[in-house]
Amino acid sequence: MLNTFSSAISPLLDQRMPGHALPAGLYTREDVFKADLDVFFRRHWIYVGLECDVPEPGDAHVIDLGSSSIILLRDDDSQIRVLHNVCRHRGARLLGSGTSIVSKLVCPYHQWTYELDGELAFAPHMGTGFDKTCKSLKPVHFRSIGGLIYVCLSDNPPKTSARSRP
Ligand code: FES
């Protein structure tokens, strides 16, 4: 994994000494922070909450993961969903931070309206050729293990085994 860091970061990693503090740049540099987000937060399973955080249909909880924002919610069929908090029109955030109760997900910008399963239900002023079926909210890979919700932002999440779950 370490070879995925840029050549500018590798010297910092090489300076690590057992029993000593890490080089300051590993705490303070913007490129290290971005690499950290990319290597760990965008590629691995991360615990984000509990099923009981959204106990009823329409309960929604926004979670920030690095620069990404996702919505953990319970849909009308009482199924857990995890969706990117990004409108498919022009990328506005659908919900603000924290918890809320919603019957639909309505974008505050131009009122594109999504069902709780992420399907686009309403998109005003889009013309006759517009195909809303390909504009559903993007789902996030997730697993629920004993009520604990893990997500992976990658399109190809790492496989899990019985020993290294989620
Ligand atoms: S950005 Fe969401 S409706 Fe336009």
Task: Please provide a written account of the structure.
- By secondary structure, the chain is an alpha+beta fold.
- It has 2 domains: 2-41, no CATH class; 47-152, Rieske Iron-sulfur Protein (3-layer Sandwich).
- 13% of the residues lie in helices and 27% in strands.
- It has helices at 10-14, 25-28, 30-41, and strands at 46-50, 59-65, 68-74, 80-84, 98-101, 105-106, 113-114, 120-122, 141-145, 148-152.
- The strands form 3 sheets. Strands 4-3-2-5 form a 4-stranded antiparallel β-sheet, with no helix packed on it. The chain has a 3-stranded antiparallel β-sheet with strand order 1-10-9, with no helix packed on it.
- A hairpin with a 6-residue loop joins strand 6 and strand 7.
- The model has no long low-confidence stretch (mean pLDDT 92).
- The protein binds FE2/S2 (inorganic) cluster.
- Residues 87, 89-90, 92, 107, 109-112 line the site of FE2/S2 (inorganic) cluster (FES).
- FE2/S2 (inorganic) cluster (FES) binds at residues 87, 89-90, 92, 107, 109-112.
β content, as a range? 25-35%
Secondary structure class reads alpha+beta
> Could you say which overall geometry the principal axes of the C-alpha atoms support?
elongated
Uncertain segments are none
- CATH topology group of the largest domain: Rieske Iron-sulfur Protein
Beta-strand segment tally: 10
> What Rg is obtained from the alpha carbons, in whole angstroms?
19 Å
The residue-averaged pLDDT reads 92
Give the second-level CATH assignment, the architecture of the largest domain.
Answer: 3-layer Sandwich
Task: Trace the largest sheet across and list its strands.
Answer: 4-3-2-5
Distance between the termini: 20 Å
**What fraction, in percent, of the residue positions are helical?**
10-25%
The major sheet is characterized as: 4 strands, antiparallel
